[in-house]
Amino acid sequence: MTAPKQRPPLPFPSKEATVEPGDLIARCQEGDVEAFELLYRQHAARLYTLACRMAGSPEDGEDLLQEIFLQAHRKLGSFKGDSAIGTWLYRLALNHCLDYVRSRQAKMSKVTETLDAEASFQPTARRETPIARMDLERAVARLPEGCREAFVLHDVEGFDHKEVGRLLGIAEGTSKSQVFKARMKLRSMLRGST
Amino acid sequence: MHPNETAINDYVEGTSDPVERSSVEQHLATCAACRQLAGDLREIARATASLELREPPVRAWGRIERAIALERDAAAPLSSKAPAFQASAGWGWGRRLEAEGETR
Question: Which residue of A has its CA nearest to B64?
């Protein structure tokens, strides 16, 4: 898995940045829970944000965050430092989110055909004011499954369509059309919301 | 005739080929509705780029800490597990009792 390409990774919060990463990891690997809490505080926001957006709700995002950090705690012993700890955690979180998405899709055969009608071409729509961040966050959470994950991975996380296709197990062209559907759906939802 | 939606989307994304780009540009110059669509798509891209990180609820770390403690407890050999009274009273109290026992 490669790192997102279109946009550099979002900066991690710099709380407790005075602790050397190597020291922190070593302490975590020795079972120091305080060190692990420090690691959590440095990276939780980034991973929680990813989990919330992929899952579509803060409640599911919180559950995912717990599972991600529990798994990180179990696997930290095998962390060799080949990549930055933030990258290692991000990959672990992304895999966890993708597993969650796949298992949910397997349970619910929810399809996005209805979106085709809703996101149909409406060139007369008008928007005069900028989109507020909170409006957009809410609208992203309301996107149908399938196109939401593709939109989050491509437009928010910065993966290209080829990588999104590989991550979601869909064709590159499908990723492109899902992202487009998501944008049109967002346009439809956000029209008149400001 | 409007270009198809994908063509405008590709144009906004900057992934259309030169011929297609030129064709869309010519159309946008004369079609207010399609200019509006292109503007909306750009605005969504701009707003998406400005999305911020979300802090998890304060309780989230507590949940993780408890789950780690439970896993550790389950993995620990039986002999090293704390008696029930220690678990319920908290480790600090349990350790105090042990220390007092050692000094007696």
Answer: A66
